[in-house]
């Protein structure tokens, strides 16, 4: 069995276990607020035409937010990790602001940027930025000095060291931060869309909840869960392509 087959088998087994647990919990609680998968899954299929545009909106917001957050965080984090002077100046600021829950800034973004895509993309990107920044900084600091010196002895410039030593060494940790950040991004997306939104999966779920349409609400929850899985797998595929040297070295 190859890697893809094992992965698919793992997903099928996990899905079966989750559905069985969901079915048992629904029967135990016996409440309309927790419909069984026998009810929710057909609703998800029947609402696919309504869910697809909302999923597209949510996907755009998450991808745009993660893209700008990562694009800013990676060079800044690597720079801090490789420059003792810059790290001494800016690292205390980063560590002072990192523990602050960024979601509390949602009202500020709403006032400054309005009620469209911009505040949601800004908030999610803000959160991803800090997660990737700290990880990239630590990964760059952890690069063995012997590796840097060996490349420098061959006449490599500072840019060569960054390109061929620091960036490849930090990439696995950066992708790990992005995968972890995906779950956070989806959670914050739901909050932002449910509080200040007229579209997206978060809005769809809360709208169905307000109408006491629990099967439709769970159809939206299934769609948001699938969105998270798709993003996670996409990051995994990009990492496998970007860090192909890891497979060759095993």
Order of helices and strands: HHHHHHHHHHH
Shape: globular
The computed structural class is: mainly alpha
* Helix coverage percent: over 70%
| Overall pLDDT | 89
- % residues in beta strands: under 5%
Which architecture does the CATH hierarchy give at level 2?
Orthogonal Bundle
Total number of domains: 1
Rounded Rg? 22 Å
Amino- and carboxy-terminal Cα gap: 19 Å
- How many helices in DSSP terms? 11
Low-confidence stretches: none
Largest sheet: none
Name of the CATH first level: Mainly Alpha
DSSP E strands, number: 0
* CATH topology-level fold name: MetI-like fold
**For the record, what is the CATH homologous superfamily label?**
MetI-like
Give a structural overview:
- Helices cover 84% and strands 0% of the residues.
- The longest helix has 38 residues, at 158-195.
- With 250 residues, it is mostly helical.
- It has one domain (44-249): MetI-like fold.
- It has helices spanning 3-29, 37-46, 48-82, 84-97, 106-113, 117-141, 145-152, 158-195, 201-210, 214-242, 244-249.
- The model has no long low-confidence stretch (mean pLDDT 89).
């Amino acid at each position: 069995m190859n890697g893809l087959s094992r992965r698919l088998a793992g997903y099928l087994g996990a899905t079966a276990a989750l559905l069985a647990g969901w079915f048992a919990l629904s029967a135990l609680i016996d409440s309309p607020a927790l419909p069984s998968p026998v009810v929710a899954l057909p609703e998800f299929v029947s609402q696919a035409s309504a869910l697809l545009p909302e999923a597209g909106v949510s996907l755009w917001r998450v991808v745009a937010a993660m893209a700008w957050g990562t694009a800013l965080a990676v060079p800044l984090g690597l720079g801090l990790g490789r420059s003792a002077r810059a790290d001494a100046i800016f690292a205390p600021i980063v560590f002072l602001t990192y523990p602050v829950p960024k979601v509390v800034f949602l009202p500020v973004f709403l006032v400054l940027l309005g009620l469209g895509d911009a505040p949601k993309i800004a908030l999610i990107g803000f959160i991803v930025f800090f997660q990737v920044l700290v990880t990239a900084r630590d990964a760059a600091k952890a690069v063995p000095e012997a590796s840097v010196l060996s490349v420098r002895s061959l006449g490599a410039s500072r840019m060569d060291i960054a390109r061929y030593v620091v960036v490849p060494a930090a990439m696995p940790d950066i992708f790990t931060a992005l995968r972890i950040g995906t779950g956070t991004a989806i959670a914050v997306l739901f909050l932002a869309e449910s509080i200040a939104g007229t579209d997206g999966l978060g809005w769809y779920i809360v709208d169905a909840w307000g109408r006491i349409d629990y099967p439709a609400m769970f159809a939206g929850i299934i769609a948001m869960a699938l969105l998270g899985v798709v993003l996670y797998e996409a990051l995994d595929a990009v990492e496998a392509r970007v860090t192909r040297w890891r497979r060759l070295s095993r």
